Each structure stands twice: as structure tokens, then as C-alpha cells.
Amino acid sequence: MAHIDLGPDEHDFPGLNGPMRFRPETPRPLNALAQELLYEDNTLPRGDRELIAAYVSSQNSCSFCADSHSAFAAAQLDAGKDLVAHVRRDLESAPVSDKLR
Predict the structure, then answer these.
(1) Tens-of-pLDDT digits for all 101 residues of the chain?
(2) Residue of 88, 45, 90 whose CA lies nearest to 66
(3) CB within 8 Å of 77: residues ≥ 6 apart
(4) What's the predicted TM-score (pTM) here?
(5) How far apart are CA 32 and CA 71, in angstroms?
(6) What is the C-alpha separation between 76 and 2, in angstroms, rounded?
(7) How many other CB atoms are found less than 10 A from the CB of residue 59?
(8) Which parts of 1-101 fold into alpha helices (H)?
(9) Which site among 27, 38, 53, 88 is 20 to 30 Å from 75 CA-CA?
């Protein structure tokens, strides 16, 4: 992912909070995108989508987003925190469907 230096906002407001603070006009489209991807009806349950977001965020080294999405995924998935940790640690051996992988 491209990186834009947001100055102090980047460190004081991690994750999406920095860009939202840096450019106040950005929250509406970013929140609309998150709404569509994570909350609206889809072919994957919400917990699976949060698990994907947790994995991608961890691969992007964004601990704020990875931890947030991990918590939401764990709360919605039967296997909870253990599955989320396994996916983040080693997706290839994680007990998830091919579609999710």
C-alpha cells in the first residue's frame, strides 16, 4: 500500500483515524466503503469478512486495524480468538475454507 506521511496525525491517530483527521472530507467515503465491505449483505458472513480484514491489516503491519478487526472477527466466529490468531500467524495451515483463504 502507498504511504503518505501525515505528520503527527499518523502517530497520534493510528489506522484510518490519521487520514480522517488529516483530511476532514475523507471520513464519508471511507466509512461508506467500510460499510459496504464489512456490514452489507454479501456472500461471506460478517465474521469471515472481519477475519480477512484482520489478516490483511496484519500483513500491512497496521496493528490498530489488525487488532480492531481481530476483535470483531473473534466475537462473531465460533472458533473465536484462537482461529483469528491462527489465521494471522499462518494462513496456509489455518482451518478455513478455500473460499476464505
Answers:
(1) 456 666 666 667 766 677 777 777 878 888 888 888 888 888 899 999 999 999 999 998 888 889 999 999 999 999 999 999 999 999 999 999 998 88
(2) 88
(3) 47, 48, 51, 83, 84
(4) 0.76
(5) 21
(6) 31
(7) 12
(8) 8-12, 17-22, 27-34, 46-59, 63-76, 80-89
(9) 27
